[in-house]
Structure prediction request, 231 residues.
Amino acid sequence: QAVLTQPASLSASPGASASLTCTLRSDSNVANFRIYWYQQKPGSPPRFVLRYKSDSDKQQGSGVPRRFSGSRDVSANTGILLISGLQSEDEADYYCMIWHNNAWVFGGGTKLTVL
Amino acid sequence: QVQLQESGPGLVRTSETLSLICTVSGGSINSYYWTWIRQPAGKGLEWIGRMFTGGSSTYNPSLMGRVTISVDTSRKQFSLKLSAVTAADAAVYFCAREGSTHIDYWGRGTLVTVSS
Prediction:
C-alpha cells in the first residue's frame, strides 16, 4: 500500500470549493507529519502551495491566495487542501508530500478540473 | 531570484549511466539541500535524492545503489548520476532547492529518453 493516497481526479464548478485529500497509510499518523502541497500545471514544474501540520504549524506559499488552505482529519488519517472560490486558473495537478523514513514521498496526485 | 537550469543528454542507452547537471544562479549554493525529482510522462512525481552542500546525501530507497548526487560549490552546480538505466527511468528530471522550510525553487525540467 502506498504511503500517500490521493484520488486521481476531482471536478468542481467555478466559485465552488474543492477539498483535495491525501490519506496516509495506517502505520503513519497524520498528526505527526507536515503535509506539503504542490500545484503543477502542464509543462511547468511544481509550485509550492502550502504546508500544514496543525493550525499552529503551517505555512502559505509566497503569492498563494488565502482561498487555499490546509487542514487535517485525524479520524480519517488524512491531510486536506481546501480551495474555495474556485477559478479556472486553479485547474492543475495537485501533489501532497511528506518526509517519511528519511525520504520525501509524494502522493500520486489529483487532477483538479474546474468546469 | 534563484534560478536552476538542468542540462545533459536527452537520450541515454539502456544499461548506461544517465548524467545530468543543474546550474544554480541568483543565489548561494551553500547551506541548502540540492534535490533531484523525476516525473515519467503522464505520471506523478518521484523524489530521487538530495545532498546538503558539503555534507550528507540521502536517496530514494528504490534507487539505492544506482544513484549518486554531488555538489560542486566552485561551479555552483550539482549533478545526478543514475546507472544501469532501463526504460523505467525515462522521465522529465527536475532539479530543485530545498530551503529551510520546503522545496522552493525548481528547474524547468529536462526530458530524458532511454533507448536501446
